[in-house]
């Protein structure tokens, strides 16, 4: 096919589409909806992936979260064995600290029984706060960015001092225009002195609001003596994350008396592992949504085939004239294939715009999800829509190319 024939084919296709605008729009409506849905889903999942990945990576590149079952995306899909595992203990954290040479810092994290927990200060109340007890090493591991005051010390932890460090939204909600340092707040009926506040993290497991209430580990244990739910935050030495994970696993298997031929009865999660697990879930979600959205493309493709068959019938006399003056079968075939591809290509562009509008609306409604149309999705949308036109245009184009010129010229 020469360049001139290709240009003429595009020109003829454009003229045909312009002369039947409404018919063309209705024909490619399925392509627009299918492409737009795929683009919109890709944009939302891309934003969701970026948001959750930021949350998971907020633990730090050298951090290991040790819990009795996996932390992160799999938490809502636990096996019966994982649900019945015994809790980690404070002694487990001490053993990791003492025996693991590749570990820099270890902090136990104790979660109180009961809840939800409320905070009160002079007529101001904040509800459903995230209350847990940690050690000074928790702040050294990069989990805390102090705004005002300071973090509590190991000495205050050992003495079970009633001190507390609160999150940014609690500082704003309880102490508007007031210095919170040194003030006493009431948490679930217990009084504590505020010694520090934290900046809101860029990303958090607890959502957009920073309503953390951090107590010294042993203070929380004294207030809630029946609490047994422990997690352990381990900070590996720089460049020694794999060695640290191996050492922690060995120590815990010995502590928890796990037979050598049995799997772990605990879970070690690093930021990259949790991101990888999460992306497996989103990839499957996107695949399912793509399959469902492709139904719209199939409907659009059938519509294109139908309208192209009608077009061939309408233009039979024109085809006869072109063949009579020297047009080859290939020329007619290419003309109708280009017309079908141009039709669905325009539908694909409209679908990308539709998908972009979906991502814009979702970004306005769900501000925590930075939905954006990825370049690969836009390119794929164009390629797939043009491919649909070519695939479903083959039969009508072949039918037009095989017309007998004498019969075509006699067609009325």
Characterization of the model:
By secondary structure, the protein is of the alpha+beta class. It is 56% helix and 17% strand. Strands 3-4-9-6-8-7 form a six-stranded mixed β-barrel. The protein starts with a helix and ends with a helix.
Topology at a glance:
Elements: H1 3-19, H2 21-27, H3 29-57, E1 63-67, H4 80-83, H5 90-99, E2 103-111, E3 117-121, E4 124-134, H6 136-143, E5 146-149, H7 154-158, E6 163-166, H8 168-174, E7 184-187, E8 190-198, E9 212-216, H9 217-223, E10 229-236, H10 241-255, E11 267-270, H11 271-314, H12 316-324, H13 329-365, H14 375-401, H15 405-410
Parallel strand pairs: 4-9, 6-8
Antiparallel strand pairs: 1-10, 1-11, 2-10, 3-4, 3-7, 5-8, 6-9, 7-8
Helix pairs in contact: 1-13, 2-11, 3-11, 3-13, 3-14, 5-10, 11-13, 11-14, 13-14
List keywords for this structure.
11 strands; alpha+beta; 4-stranded antiparallel sheet; elongated
